[in-house]
């Protein structure tokens, strides 16, 4: 079971404000820039991101039902700020891998510990 939604709400209000300052500049982190499905508002969500076989993979620690994931899937594309640059990603798809074999070893262990087997995969536009 992914992390609880109560923690997600806390992170949205507190943690994301702090990590958002550096997440777009550090390897293994990024900021997903997406537009709300109903509000049309632009959101910035810090994430863990990795490149695997030329595709970008984002750990879904709160599960595939998170608002940002649903926004990205509905739009079919999004911006990712990572390592100091912004790229457009397209064709997002939620994948399930119980062993998180796509992730680096240390990350794989954390994802297993928090029971987060899903990831979002997208390619460069």
UniProtKB/TrEMBL annotation:
<protein>
    <recommendedName>
        <fullName>Nitroreductase family deazaflavin-dependent oxidoreductase</fullName>
    </recommendedName>
</protein>
<dbReference type="GO" id="GO:0016491">
    <property type="term" value="F:oxidoreductase activity"/>
</dbReference>
<dbReference type="Pfam" id="PF04075">
    <property type="entry name" value="F420H2_quin_red"/>
</dbReference>
<dbReference type="InterPro" id="IPR012349">
    <property type="entry name" value="Split_barrel_FMN-bd"/>
</dbReference>
<dbReference type="InterPro" id="IPR004378">
    <property type="entry name" value="F420H2_quin_Rdtase"/>
</dbReference>
């Amino acid at each position: 079971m992914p992390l609880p939604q109560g923690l997600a709400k806390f992170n949205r209000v507190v943690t994301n404000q702090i990590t958002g300052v550096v997440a777009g500049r550090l390897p293994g982190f990024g900021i997903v820039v997406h537009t709300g499905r109903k509000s049309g508002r632009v959101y910035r969500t810090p994430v863990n991101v990795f490149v695997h076989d030329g595709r970008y993979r984002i750990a879904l620690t709160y599960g595939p039902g998170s608002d940002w994931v649903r926004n990205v899937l509905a739009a079919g594309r999004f911006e990712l700020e990572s390592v100091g640059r912004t790229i457009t990603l397209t064709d997002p798809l939620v994948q399930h891998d119980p062993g998180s074999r796509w992730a680096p070893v240390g990350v794989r262990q954390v994802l297993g510990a928090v029971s987060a087997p899903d990831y979002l995969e997208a390619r460069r536009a």
